[in-house]
Design the sequence.
């Protein structure tokens, strides 16, 4: 592999996942992400006791469960890396592997360019920034998001757990994205309301040709507008009934090396953005176990936690 890819794999396996020479590594991939997967496999051959790679059919949607044999295999390794076209982040397969003690990194939609670029971040700094935002969210009760594009959204968060996705997945049973850099939580179910205007990108769609406007009432998306991409999004979410329309996540990006590329794995980590997701929220302490989880990224947000403004036009004030 070329030197840049080698350096990214080394950072991922040794720095972020703390892979030890005595441990086993499993790489779970599909036909669309083989280049990054094979680089991880080769890295595992060099730095782990054993390294294996399994390739499966590309899933249809983010959050779709892998076949049972793959899910079972994930529970038998010390470290599991999942570079796949569709996300395994919010799946029982990932959650169960973590319960069995595996350290699991998911890389949905990863490409070589995105991987090499985002793994250049100083993940200790990313972690510090992420913990800072999480600490503020833990003290708050209500988050308000407003933008010049038209977002005016209220998200009650109450005592919901706040998750710091730092990219440092070094403890037994931990899981997260690579690349990473976000503080996120599940808003109180059934209580979010207002207007969300997504103007950067959406999971499964990529960069937006025009903003997508979503009217939210009682914690669910009720109305979509914004052209062809909005219709595609609505169709995908409504295919899962009301469960697909649930406001599942509020996230705040903390990775300064990430840019808006159309890959949600990178886009939702961009420092100075926020994202709102619909669908599955089980991994965040919610109760909506559905086979879809789609994130929409918002540029230049103004964000308040209770009465404290913490982001102004995308610039952090804290």
Sequence:
């Amino acid at each position: 592999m070329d030197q840049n890819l080698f350096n990214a794999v080394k950072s991922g396996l040794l720095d972020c996942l703390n892979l030890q020479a005595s441990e086993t590594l499993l790489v779970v991939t599909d036909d669309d992400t083989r280049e990054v997967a094979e680089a991880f496999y080769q890295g595992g051959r060099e730095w782990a006791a054993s390294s294996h790679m399994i390739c499966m059919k590309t899933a249809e949607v983010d959050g779709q469960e892998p076949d049972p044999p793959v899910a079972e295999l994930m529970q038998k390794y010390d470290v599991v890396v999942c570079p796949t076209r569709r996300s395994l982040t919010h799946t029982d397969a990932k959650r169960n592997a973590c319960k069995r003690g595996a350290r699991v990194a998911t890389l949905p939609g990863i490409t070589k360019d995105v991987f090499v670029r985002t793994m250049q971040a100083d993940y200790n700094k990313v972690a510090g920034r992420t913990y800072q935002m999480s600490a503020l969210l833990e003290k708050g009760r209500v988050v308000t998001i407003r933008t010049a594009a038209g977002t005016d959204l209220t998200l009650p968060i109450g005592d919901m757990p706040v998750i710091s996705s730092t990219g440092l997945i070094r403890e037994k049973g931990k899981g997260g994205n690579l690349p990473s850099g976000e503080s996120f939580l599940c808003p109180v179910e059934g209580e979010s309301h207002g207007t969300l205007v997504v103007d950067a990108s959406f999971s499964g769609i990529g960069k937006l040709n025009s903003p997508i406007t979503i009217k939210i009432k009682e914690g669910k998306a009720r109305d979509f507008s914004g052209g062809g991409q909005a219709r595609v999004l609505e169709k995908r979410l409504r295919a899962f009934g009301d469960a697909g329309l649930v406001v599942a996540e509020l996230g705040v990006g903390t990775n300064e090396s990430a840019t808006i590329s159309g890959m949600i794995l990178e886009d939702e980590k961009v420092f100075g953005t926020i994202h709102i997701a619909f669908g599955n929220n089980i991994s965040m302490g919610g109760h909506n176990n559905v086979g879809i989880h789609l994130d929409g990224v918002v540029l230049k947000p103004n964000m308040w936690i209770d009465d404290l403004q913490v982001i102004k036009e995308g610039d952090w004030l804290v």
Summary: The first helix runs from residue 3 to 16. The mean pLDDT is 96.
